[in-house]
Specification:
The chain is an alpha/beta fold. It has 14 helices and seven strands. 48% of the residues are buried. It binds zinc ion.
Amino acid sequence: MVDLNIFVSGLLDDLASIQTSVYPRRAYERAARKIALLPERLSSSTILPDVGKTATAVIREVLATGDSTTVAKAVAQSGRMPDVEQRRARRDGFMSLAVARLVLEDASLEGVGLADYRGDFQMHSQWSDGQRSIAEMALACADRGYSHMAVTDHTDGLAITRGLSTAGMSAQHRETDAINEATAGKFLVIKGIEANILADGTVDVPQASLKTRRPYCVPQLVLAAPHSKLDSDENQTSRLLRAVATPGVHILAHPSGRKFGKRDGLQVDWARVFAAAAAANVAIEIDGDPSRQDLPYALARQAFDAGCLIAIDSDAHDTDELVFAEIALAHARLAGIPASRVINTWSTKKLLSWLKR
Ligand SMILES: [Zn+2]
């Protein structure tokens, strides 16, 4: 089945990439994202979101003819065809929210489904680069029917976001305790952190806090994720091997670092990384951010076959992004991964005992 929404989203991303000034580039990028996140497949009856005149014309053209001469001409005139072709190759294996929902509704598939999903383990609050308070994220998760969630703000090693220091983490944990007291067992916020996997594979979990084990400084759930050196052609297997072998790491998050149209992600011998993760009892994440979808279903299947547990997360930075978990779930369902191997389907009790392993 052709994913028309992701095809159109890609064409708008082509237009974004050939713009020479920032404003139109951002506008096309936003339009591309809106189309990828439409709840239904584009058709002549779709009420189009506010995406600007040219973007709307491109959509109508694709609906009428299956392609866009407007985009073809613009790309040809820009003289940047090689760039655009590279971007197109870097959109392989991405799906739109509309197609993700069709996958989740497809009863012929046997993998994990939406009804199995009980908690999201990657999201960001105002404590780092998120838009909402922990309480607002928790309410939105409870509204989606979850029984728990982890808030996983960035550690302060990450230059591009306002990360959490050890002192910040301690304050965040007190706030989390207050929320958990207020929900009185009906919903649980787990104290998580998204640590960076540095170029040499060390993970910047605040080690001091792990050593002193002061109750207000110890995260209950640690994601380790690569955020640097993502464009390199170098083989980075040893980087990820070291990260999954780090005591305290629970989840290898957005493992490849790939980005829609922008980069292929790390060059890694996945078989070795998955074997090491399975041995260390580290879950492999499928990150549902539409521009990440990392790992995609084929690699997620390989991780499952290697004996890994799978984590399915939204990587939401706002309440309306919690829906990204559905894109990640669709990859897991396509990969045929059963609910029992997905840590997000476990009861709170089972999850907490796994976290303390
Ligand atoms: Zn991240």
